[in-house]
Design a protein that fits this description.
- This protein is α/β, with parallel strands linked by helices.
- The strands form 5 sheets. A 7-stranded mixed beta sheet has the order 13-14-15-12-11-17-18, with helices on both faces. The protein has a 6-stranded mixed beta sheet with strand order 8-7-6-9-10-20, with helices on both faces.
- Helix 1 packs across helix 7 and helix 4 packs parallel to helix 5.
- The radius of gyration is 26 Å and the shape is globular.
- It binds nicotinamide-adenine-dinucleotide (NAD).
- The site of nicotinamide-adenine-dinucleotide (NAD) has 30 residues, from helix 7 and helix 8.
- The site of nicotinamide-adenine-dinucleotide has 30 residues, from helix 7 and helix 8.
């Protein structure tokens, strides 16, 4: 049964979608899909509102975001309820991985944006009669398109960064979790954000595609590689810059000297938190042979202790979308058909009617299996023994994805060296799922995992145009390169080039 399905309403105007709880499959509401003309109108209104918003001092903009933190603390129970109703994730996980990082993002960027986006005075190495200031200006209107797996924080965090940089935002959350996305608009409006500075538009791919074409000045997209490609094509056609935060196939490497207790707990959490539906979930574990059996035993024990369900106290919720559940089933089936052994899970949880897939541990996997090549995005952990850490790095890098990765060793220097050898946008030694939570760290992927960065100074600045303002400091009549040209000028230029780059003094200068 589909979690999102069209409501048949022949002859009526706007399309409607019916939503079901992924945990119980009960209907939980309907949304209207915003058509392209509504998207264009929202972008036009945002453009008008943006000018006054950008003219406010950073402190004023920050004050609104800090007020949003107070409101979020007050309203946390209702926000958790909305998120849990749409995703089925455990309330504690909604608190830890949605609300907690949301409070942090609001506070972090409210307090730091002024410093990060302050004009930079940069001394010039050559044109010393001029002064250079690098100025960060808002791009204008940012279109933000987000997925369903962390539907609140992944909508809020780029929105906060775009707003603090002085932009207006039109946000299109996933059709699978629209109400969690809508909370972002509700929160910031209640905190005092002026009208039209943020508009949340509900809808599916049609609404998202319309947003990319609606004349925005930047697209911040988080979602799958397939949709990311389509978004990138449309952005290319319109010459709109875009940040693409896409899928991953993150590896976890366990060296022979690793603390196996910590490494196995981290692997279980990294693979099964959010029921494996995190872009930086652990999707492959490469373990040095001499500790592979002990590590696998611990992983299987800890997996068996996990509780799954729709209510009460539980560690794992359901898959959030039936289409993703089908992908998980296909990957595990393909692996088993090709010879993989299932040490835990490997099937839907028969206890519940919803989209529950049991936390699954696979061994005897091979690189040609789907579960080792494509993003699974579900609670599946394949474990592969390797000769040594170097082989693990080579196998980890042999992937079209490059989002994040983890390394476990007691030797931190070696861990860092292995992390640096990984072809990923981030790498963590001694932990999992940590890269997105460290807001100082620019986050994003290489290869097919994406383009650009969110978070950190680089992420915040990516919501700006950099403008270089050069000011001549002296009132001279002319410059060496100005007209007229002629033999005398050529001689002067040759002499200058010889002195600057052809003499030890010039090179030293
Ligand atoms: P998706 O690509 O199906 O959808 C993402 C968003 O794009 C949704 O809002 C959807 O309505 C919209 N959309 C669909 N078609 C569109 C089009 N043609 N033009 C514009 N927008 C369109 O992704 P999903 O299934 O919602 O999310 C899961 C994926 O997101 C996984 O691959 C996961 O790895 C990735 N993800 C990446 C990160 C990251 O930071 N790198 C974070 C979370 C999730």
């Amino acid at each position: 049964m589909a979690v999102v399905e069209p409501v048949e309403a022949p002859g009526e105007g706007r399309r409607r979608l019916r939503l079901r709880s992924p945990a119980t499959l009960e209907p939980i509401g309907e949304i209207e899909v915003e058509p392209p003309e509504a998207v264009r109108a929202a972008v036009d209104r945002a453009r008008k509102a943006q000018r006054e918003w950008a003219a406010l001092p950073f402190r004023e903009r920050g004050r609104i975001l800090l007020r949003a933190v107070d409101l979020l603390l007050e309203r946390q129970d209702r926000f958790v309820e909305v998120i849990v109703r749409e995703t089925g994730k455990p309330p504690a996980e909604a608190l830890a991985m949605e609300l907690f990082p949301a409070c942090d993002a609001l506070t972090f960027f409210a307090r730091r944006a002024e410093r990060i986006l302050a004009d930079r005075r940069v001394p010039l190495h050559l044109l010393r009669t001029k002064r250079l200031r690098v100025v960060y200006k808002p791009v204008g209107v940012v279109g933000i398109i987000t997925p369903w797996n962390f539907p609140f924080v992944l909508s809020l965090n780029p929105t906060v960064q775009a707003l603090m940089a002085g932009n207006a935002v039109v946000l299109k959350p996933s059709e699978v979790t629209p109400c969690s996305g809508r909370l972002v608009g509700e929160l910031l409006e209640a905190a005092g954000l002026p009208p039209d500075v943020l508009t949340v538009l509900l809808g599916d791919g049609e609404t998202g595609a319309a947003l990319v074409e609606a004349g925005v000045d930047k697209i911040s997209f988080t979602g799958s590689v397939a949709t990311g490609e389509r978004v990138a094509e449309a952005c290319g056609r319109n010459l709109v810059p875009c940040t693409l935060e896409l899928g991953g196939k993150d590896a976890l490497i366990v060296c022979e000297d690793a603390d196996l207790e910590r490494a196995s707990s981290a692997a279980v959490f990294g693979a099964f938190a959010n029921a494996g539906q995190a872009c930086i979930s652990v999707e492959r574990a490469y373990v040095v042979s001499e500790v592979a059996d002990a590590f696998t035993r611990k992983v299987v024990e800890k997996t068996a202790a996990l509780r799954q369900g729709p209510s009460g106290e539980y560690d794992l919720g359901p898959m959030m979308w039936d289409r993703q559940l089908e992908i998980v089933e296909r990957h595990v089936r393909d692996a088993v058909e090709k010879g993989a052994r299932v040490l835990a899970g490997g099937r839907r949880n028969p206890e519940w009617p919803g989209l529950f897939y049991e936390p699954t541990v696979l061994v005897d996997v091979r690189p040609d299996m789907l579960v080792m090549r494509e993003e699974t995005f579900g609670p599946v952990l394949p474990i592969v023994p390797v000769r040594d850490a170097e082989e693990a790095v080579a196998l980890a890098n042999d992937s079209p994805f490059g989002l994040s990765a983890s390394v476990f060793t007691r030797d931190r220097r070696r861990g860092e060296a292995l992390a640096r050898a990984l072809e990923t946008g981030s790498a963590v030694v001694g932990d999992v799922l940590a890269a997105y939570g460290a807001l100082e760290a620019p986050f994003g992927g290489v290869k097919r995992s994406g383009i650009g960065r969110v978070n950190g100074e680089a992420g915040l600045r990516s919501f700006c145009h950099t403008q270089s303002v050069l000011v001549e400091r002296f009132s001279r009549r002319s410059e060496m390169v100005w007209f007229p040209h002629g033999a005398a000028k050529s001689r002067r230029i040759r002499r200058a080039m010889r002195i600057l780059w052809g003499t030890p003094l010039g090179r030293w200068l």
